[in-house]
Structure formats: C-alpha cells, structure tokens
Specification:
This protein has one domain: minor pseudopilin epsh fold (3-Layer(bab) Sandwich), CATH 3.55.40.10. Helix content is 25%, strand content 27%. The protein contains 3 helices and 11 strands, in the order H-H-E-E-E-E-E-E-H-E-E-E-E-E. The two termini are 37 Å apart.
C-alpha cells in the first residue's frame, strides 16, 4: 500500500512539473508576445507613418525603426515595449524570408560574446550597446511598412531537442498569422 502511494506521488509530481497537459508555456508565451508585438508595431507604423522592421538574431529579436534624418535603423528610443528581447533558455528562432532561409547572426549576448542577461529581460540600450551594433549590423530582415504591408516571412519558434514549434507568418499582401503550437515526432 505504501509503495502505491509513493508511486502515485512521484507520478503526480512529474505530471505537475510538465505543466499538467504537457503544454510548453514558455513557447506559448513567447509566440503570443511576439505576435502581439508585431501587430502593435504594424499599428504604430501606420499611425506614425514610420517604417519599422524586425531583426532576429540567435536567441534574440528586436524591433527597429528607420530614422530618415540619420538614414539608419535604430531601436525606438521612446517605446520600451519594443526593446530587444532575449528568448528563454532552450527556445530557438528560425527565419525564412521570401522563401529563403536566413542564417541568423550571433547576438551580442550569445555565449562567449558578452555577459548574459536574465531571460526575457531587456538588453542594454546604452551607448556601449549601440557602439557594438554598427549601422550595418542593425538592419531588419522583416519589414513592417507604414502602408500595412510586410515582408513575406515564416518565423519559427521551437524548443531545442523536441519537436515542439510555433510558426508566425506574414505575406507581402499584409496578412499576418500566428500558428498553433505543433509537436512533431522526434
């Protein structure tokens, strides 16, 4: 009888640690956050008639705005919600733009490059951070135009070592979709 109770407790603990239904809440949260931010930036671009873009790096994504006076892509200094974001450990980004796979550059916070920041925390927005990122490096792969159009893309967030992934996609006609989390056998 004691053995059955112990086995039941171990099984319950294991089930609770997996989130009950086996859902990947971090993947789901990042998918929803990125989808909401893309929609927000599209609305912001249309209201301000400013061109925005999304730049993806290994483990990091950031939104950039085009400064016409400086002729440079820069992080928006007035909107902290568009800061660079580091993905939680174990999540990866893959990007296809206009049917071409993009090799994502290493992030300034990649291992060996600089001191890591805690997950889901803003990356530094000071002079030293901008001096590391030259104007040539800060170019978005995905354009979010003020006209409502966007670059045709397929961005996949996935959990390393598992078959779980979620796809966010956009078409050049301006259609944007956030896909469900799918699990493919590994």
């Amino acid at each position: 009888m004691v053995v059955i109770v112990i086995i039941g407790l171990v099984a319950a603990t294991t089930l609770l640690s997996l989130g009950g239904s086996g859902r990947d809440s971090q993947l789901e949260q990042e998918r929803d956050r990125l989808g909401a931010l893309i929609e927000y930036v599209r609305e912001r671009a249309a209201l301000q008639t400013v061109e925005y873009g999304l730049r993806c790096e290994q483990g990091v994504y950031r939104f950039l705005m085009y400064d016409n006076r400086k002729a440079l892509w820069l992080e928006d200094p007035l909107d902290d919600s568009l800061r660079a974001r580091k993905l939680p450990a174990g999540l990866e980004i893959a990007l296809v733009v206009e049917d071409r796979a993009i090799v994502l550059p290493r992030s300034a916070t990649a291992p060996g490059a600089a001191a890591p920041t805690p997950r889901n925390t803003p990356m530094p927005r000071d002079a030293s951070a901008t001096s590391q990122d030259t104007a040539a490096e800060l170019k978005p792969q995905i354009m979010l135009y003020s006209s409502g159009d966007l670059t045709s893309f397929k961005l996949t967030l996935s959990r390393a070592g598992t078959g779980r992934s979620a796809v966010l996609s956009g078409t050049s006609a301006g259609k944007f979709e956030v896909g469900a989390i799918v699990e493919k056998p590994t």
